[in-house]
Amino acid sequence: MTNNCCDECGKEGGASLKVCKSCMQVKYCNAECQRQHWSTHKKQCRLRAAELRDEALFKDPPHKEDCPICFLPMPVKLLCCTSLPAATILSVPIYDFVTANVELANDDTDSAVYYSCCGKSICGGCLFSFVESGNIGKCPFCKAERIGLYSTDEDTVADMMRRVEANDVGAIYQQAGYYYSGLEGFQQDRAKAMDLYVRAAELGCKKAHYCLGVIYMGEGDLKKAKFHFEAAAIAGHEMARYNLGYIEYNSGNIERAIKHFTIAASAGHYKAMYQLRTFFKEGVIKRESIDSTLGAYNNSCAEMRSKARDAYIALWRLGRTV
């Protein structure tokens, strides 16, 4: 067969042939030929599809999204590091990597603040700075009043609903969370929440994929959980990546677990770096294989920190909001 022939009937079709979407290796002139050829092709297809999935899964993730105001990379969740080593990787012992506040490391609070009035998000540090400058309750983009005399919770929900109708992925994700937890006047409804999470995920929302993974893992559906964690990890969600490492480790796939933990740690995920340090202590991995990851971890933490973000996190730890 050539690339211009159907792999089932041999008919030449050129550009009109349809490529198998799973393996991208064979072509068919129609769906019937594809069905007829499946018994012959399925083993090869599944092997190649798994290879392609791993290629996507373990390649370098995309750069973190920057906050549109301070232009610093935004962590997926609250940045948990509380100190940074002053020296370089060559002089910092492995046990002196960036330390974390355990409370923050285990918290699931989003690092970004979403504004339903205009559909934009900023980091907590910029929100802190904006409020400190006297703009309490205002949106930093459209300057709409978000709190107080000129705005109510009902106004905020109405803004969100308008943006959901406009297919705004941030609003869809936000509404899904309201339904799932029964917040902001929404009656708790798992089915509606799942539909919205799926809708946001299909629009490319890595946080929605992560939430679906968490929900399915909690319900014991590891296959679906892993699928959504992988989709989120490919998009750069380090907590989803850490969960994949945890799943692979529990399944006895230590090498794959180490790959996941390494990628997550390089992105600044404390628990992944801690797990790698544990592996080193147990003799599972060697020092030379962890040095570069340690340097990447420290650098990622440094890039994401700022005085304003530290101030925002300090307020959060006191149970206060800005």
Question: Can you describe what's shown?
Answer:
By secondary structure, this protein is mainly alpha-helical. It folds into 2 domains: 1-34, no CATH class; 94-317, Alpha Horseshoe (Serine Threonine Protein Phosphatase 5, Tetratricopeptide repeat). The chain is 54% helix and 4% strand. It is built from 13 helices and 4 strands. It has helices at 31-58, 102-105, 124-132, 153-165, 169-181, 190-202, 206-218, 222-234, 238-250, 254-266, 270-281, 287-304, 307-317; strands at 18-19, 27-28, 112-115, 120-123. Strands 1-2 form a two-stranded antiparallel sheet. It has a two-stranded antiparallel ribbon with strand order 3-4. Strand 3 and strand 4 form a beta hairpin. Helix 7 (206-218) packs antiparallel against helix 8 (222-234), helix 9 (238-250) packs antiparallel against helix 10 and helix 10 (254-266) runs parallel beside helix 12. The radius of gyration is 23 Å and the shape is globular.
Give the SSE layout.
Elements: E1 18-19, E2 27-28, H1 31-58, H2 102-105, E3 112-115, E4 120-123, H3 124-132, H4 153-165, H5 169-181, H6 190-202, H7 206-218, H8 222-234, H9 238-250, H10 254-266, H11 270-281, H12 287-304, H13 307-317
Antiparallel strand pairs: 1-2, 3-4
Helix pairs in contact: 3-13, 4-5, 5-6, 6-7, 7-8, 8-9, 9-10, 10-11, 10-12, 11-12
